[in-house]
Write a structure and sequence with these properties.
InterPro entries: G_SEPTIN_dom, P-loop_NTPase, Septin. Residues 260-275 have a biased composition (Acidic residues). Keywords: GTP-binding, Nucleotide-binding. This protein is of the alpha/beta class and 415 residues long. The protein has three domains: 2-219 and 289-341, Rossmann fold (3-Layer(aba) Sandwich), CATH 3.40.50.300; 223-282, no CATH class; 376-414, no CATH class. It is 46% helix and 13% strand. It has 14 helices and 13 strands. The strands form five sheets. A four-stranded parallel sheet has the order 1-5-6-7, with helices on both faces. Strands 2-3-4 form a three-stranded antiparallel sheet. A two-stranded antiparallel sheet has the order 8-9. The protein is globular. The protein starts with a strand and ends in a 5-residue tail after the last strand. Residues 28-61, 252-264 and 391-415 have low confidence and may be disordered. The protein binds guanosine-5'-triphosphate. Guanosine-5'-triphosphate is lined by residues 6-12, 77, 79-80, 105-106, 188-189, 191-192, 294-295, 298.
Length: 415
């Protein structure tokens, strides 16, 4: 899912991202619509970004057909007025993936409007949780049930404002979205930033996030990063000592690096087993956060590299920019993290943390509402005239029946 303020390049990103995929065939919208497709902002005919959802609070379903999905990612670029789910079945190495790209309308307007727009996004994410919850409650679960969850929300940050970093509105939105989804910060239109500006901006965003307790998805935990750093410097020291001879062993011991590394907690046993190359990749990805991306040229403009090969890029009077060149921007790294190296980790966090948290909150809320309903019933019974309390009147219920929060009738056995 992409989210953020209007005009930052979210749709352009989705289109460029699509250009990097190997689509097998397009999954028809009907397949997804039965289980999860939902339009965040109401009916497609309603063009207002602040239009309400259906009365029951669940966003109405709007299926996207195969044709629509392709048209969306290849047609003319227009402002996103309604959210859009594009579904693709892709080949990623040896894996076959059902990938859903969710575009959302950009935030615009007063704080109140932005907050209600954020509500819509949250409701959408929670709606996907509800679908999983409903599936889990079934006696016979559907073995072919589609993975509905939003595993990553790429949050686009504006870099045109004079104040570097996150705006107050970004902070408010990020704090809320971060309770429900893996957040990955993105700086779009990277071609408009120099290397120094980009570096400064990244630092400012991370500082603002840390100061405001906003947690982005960690490609590598700080503990593991520290461990890796110590390991590296230890390796370097060892190399230096072997070059200089045995006399310098003591110096290495004095540094205490080896011990320090071993003293680190043992609760990262799984991480210890990771292949060093994977650790390197994790560390590199973490160093890129927030990811700077550049979208390809729009309106069918063909861009060729110096060898005449057509590429996803942008052409300037001074040269050609390749969106997938890691020297130009972080798009290729982000793509590989989302679809390959961190795909599983993102999914595990979604189910193991965000979904579980939502499920617990929901169950607790249900229990509480049942308790309140029960207390109210008891109070009503106590206030009833004496002859009704003794069972001689119309009250024939021996045990209280409670209407649960879901509307289901539950008995005292449920307490
Ligand atoms: N120079 C440059 N322009 C870009 C880039 N990405 C997008 N744009 C331009 O920025 C404008 C807005 O892009 P969109 O992709 O529509 O932005 P959006 O965030 O989806 O906007 P909303 O639909 O309002 O939410 C378009 O004119 C794009 O061509 C980029 O990497 N570099």
């Amino acid at each position: 899912m992409v989210a953020g303020f209007t005009g930052l390049g979210k749709t352009s990103f989705i289109r460029t991202f699509y250009g990097t995929l190997n689509p097998r065939s397009l999954v028809t919208g009907g397949l997804k619509s039965k289980t999860s497709s939902a339009n965040l902002l109401g009916d497609a005919s309603n063009k207002s970004p602040t239009s309400p959802t259906s009365p029951n609070g669940i966003p109405p379903v709007r299926p996207n057909g195969a044709k629509e999905s392709v048209a969306y990612v290849t047609g003319q670029l227009v402002r996103t007025m309604n959210s859009f789910e594009a579904l693709f079945e892709i080949d990623e190495g040896i894996d076959k993936i059902n990938l859903t790209l969710v575009d959302t309308p950009g935030f615009v307007g007063t704080d109140e409007v932005i907050d209600s727009h954020c509500d819509e996004i949250l409701r959408y994410i929670e709606y996907q949780f509800d679908l999983t919850l409903a599936e889990e409650r079934k006696v016979r679960r559907n073995p072919k049930a589609i993975d509905n969850q939003i595993h990553a929300c790429l949050y686009f940050i504006d870099h045109s404002s004079p104040r570097l970093g996150l705006s107050d509105a970004d902070i408010r939105v990020l704090k809320r979205l971060g309770t429900r989804v893996n957040l990955i910060p993105v700086i779009a239109r990277g071609d408009t930033l120099t290397r120094a500006q980009n570096k400064k901006l990244k630092r400012a965003i991370l500082n603002d996030a840390a100061q405001n307790q906003i947690e982005f998805f960690q490609f590598m935990s700080s503990k593991l990063a520290k461990k890796l750093l110590l390991q590296k410097s230890e390796d370097q020291k060892k190399k230096r000592i072997s070059r200089q001879g045995p006399g310098d062993d003591e110096e290495a011991a004095e540094q205490g690096l080896t011990n320090e590394t071993e003293e680190e907690d043992d609760d990262d046993e799984d991480e210890e087993d990771w292949d060093p190359e994977y650790l390197e990749e994790k560390s590199h990805l973490q160093s890129l956060v927030p990811f700077t991306v550049i979208a390809q040229e729009e309106d069918g403009v063909e861009v060729q590299d110096e060898n005449g090969k057509i590429i996803q890029g942008r052409e300037f009077p001074w040269g050609v920019l390749n969106c997938l060149d890691s020297k130009h921007c972080d798009l290729a790294n982000l793509r590989s993290a989302l679809l390959s190296s961190h795909r599983q980790e993102l999914k595990e966090l979604t189910y193991g943390y965000f979904y579980e948290k939502y499920r617990t909150e929901k169950l607790l809320a249900r229990t509480k509402s049942q308790q309140i309903a029960h207390q109210q019933q008891q109070q009503q019974q106590q206030q009833q005239p004496h002859h009704l309390k003794n069972g001689s009147g119309s009250s024939h219920l021996r045990s209280p029946v409670i209407i649960g929060s879901s509307g289901a009738i539950v008995g005292p056995w449920e307490k």
